[in-house]
Design a protein that fits this description.
With 420 residues, this protein is of the alpha/beta class. 28% of the residues lie in helices and 14% in strands. The chain is built from 10 helices and 14 strands. Strands 4-3-5-7-6-9 form a 6-stranded mixed β-sheet. The longest helix is centred in the C-terminal third of the chain and has 21 residues, at 335-355. It is elongated and about 75 Å long. It starts with 20 loop residues before the first strand and ends with a strand.
């Protein structure tokens, strides 16, 4: 049985350079912030122009505080004369955070252009009429969410509270001591899970208990999975892909749910360009999944899938293989035909990236480094002598890329995983 979670690298991604502390008793510190006391409750403030995940995380944080204390915080997008406020948002889009930076009350220089970092800090008298603000500022959209969920974990709501029925620690009052605390850049850029072999667990559970109306894994299940990933400070999901499950992109709401939680969508090694060939490729209407026999249709379907999803953050898998774990064209294809097909395959990828997928500004992760030294090769065909791919360096090697791309329709970051 294949490993269920092939892509888990979830821990130790954002160790803090300083130390935020949450206690039940009052804290004697100039950075002390009363979250919930017998007399006061802080108000959570976000910016409506910020990313959806900021609002979603703020809602969940309010729910977390209620689970711990029994008290519900007010969530608002405006300052209304409240004495203690929690400001959550990105340095890019939150106006209050930028105003504090312009006044010299908050140093966000380390967050500008950074990848998934956050700053937590108590600011005294941030605005007229406001006594204290607990600021949770994030770089890009996931940074702010990671920071707020860090507070949730510290006050007693574990990331696994829902999936594992992990008990929530109860407190009557909560005080935060937050000197300027900056998270580190995650050492692994894309961290997450691959939902594999769902036939035996996740699919029947979702069908029988959580999404009975759908009878399968759907948006409600994926929402809970995405929330877990965000609480774990992960950012990547390769969805369930066996034929027993409804393919992720057959349900339009699925990708909207993932984007609401700012989760980067990817796919398994046998799902090229987000296409689930196990259940989405219909040989009766599309022809065979065989690049030698059906090149134009395969190009059309893969191109459409990328165009449909370019408005979202994705990790794209490039592959030329048969359905599921089989070889392209079946196991009886003569070796000379496999070699011929693989010789043309990389050139197809180069053309498609430039013409159909609108990907520009492609930069090698490291100069003069061939991915063929780092990826699993099709060994027998390689020994058969097929030529290297036409690529970006003088050695005509297939280069390994870290993609930061601009597209015609959007400006989202995209990554590529290449399997040969």
């Amino acid at each position: 049985m294949r490993i269920l979670f092939l892509l888990i690298v979830l821990s130790l991604t954002s160790a803090l350079q300083a130390q935020v502390v949450i206690k039940e008793n009052a804290i004697q510190s100039k950075y002390a912030f009363p979250l919930v006391t017998s007399k006061t409750k802080a108000v959570v403030v976000y910016d409506t122009d910020d990313y959806l995940v900021v609002h979603k995380t703020a809602e969940l944080f309010v729910s977390d505080v209620e689970s711990v204390t029994g008290q519900q915080l007010r969530l608002t997008d405006k300052l209304k004369g409240d004495k203690e406020i929690i400001i959550v948002g990105t340095v890019e889009k939150n106006r209050l955070i930028r105003q504090l930076a312009e006044k010299g009350k908050l140093d966000i220089s380390s967050l500008e252009g950074a990848w998934e970092r956050f700053l937590i800090q108590t600011v005294s008298r941030p605005f007229p009429g406001v006594s204290k603000a607990l600021v949770v500022a994030g770089s890009y959209r996931r940074g702010a969410a990671y920071g707020l969920f860090s507070l949730s974990a510290m006050m007693g709501v574990a990331p696994w509270y829902w999936w594992a029925d992990f008990p929530v620690t109860k407190h009557k009052t909560l005080y935060v001591d937050a000197p300027a605390t900056l998270s580190k850049t995650p050492s692994v850029k894309y961290r997450g899970i691959f939902l594999n072999d769902e036939d035996w667990g996740l699919k029947p559970w979702a069908a029988k208990t959580f999404e009975k109306e759908r009878g399968n894994i759907g948006p409600r299940t994926y929402a809970k999975i995405c929330e877990l990933l965000l609480r774990l400070k992960a950012n990547h999901l390769a969805p369930a892909m066996h034929p027993v499950s409804t393919a992720f992109y057959k349900i339009p709401e699925n990708k909207l749910v993932a984007d609401t939680f700012a989760i980067v969508m990817g796919s398994s090694h046998c799902e090229p360009l987000l296409l689930n060939t196990a259940s989405e490729w219909d040989s009766k209407t599309m022809g065979p999944w065989d690049y030698n026999k059906n090149k134009d249709k395969i190009n059309e379907v893969l191109s459409n899938r990328v165009k449909e999803n370019c408005a979202y953050e994705n990790v794209y898998t490039l592959a030329l293989r048969g359905l599921h774990d089989a070889a392209m064209g079946g196991g009886d294809v003569p070796m000379r035909e496999k070699v011929k097909m693989l010789e043309h395959h990389p050139h197809f990828l180069t053309v498609e990236i430039d013409v159909c997928f609108f990907i520009r500004n492609v930069r090698p992760l490291k100069e003069d480094m061939s991915a063929c030294r780092h990826l699993q090769k099709v060994q027998t065909a390689q020994e058969g002598g097929f030529a290297g791919a036409g690529g970006p360096d003088d050695n005509n090697n297939l280069a390994l890329f870290d993609f930061r791309i601009d597209t015609v329709q959007c400006l989202n970051r995209t990554a590529l995983i290449i399997f040969l």
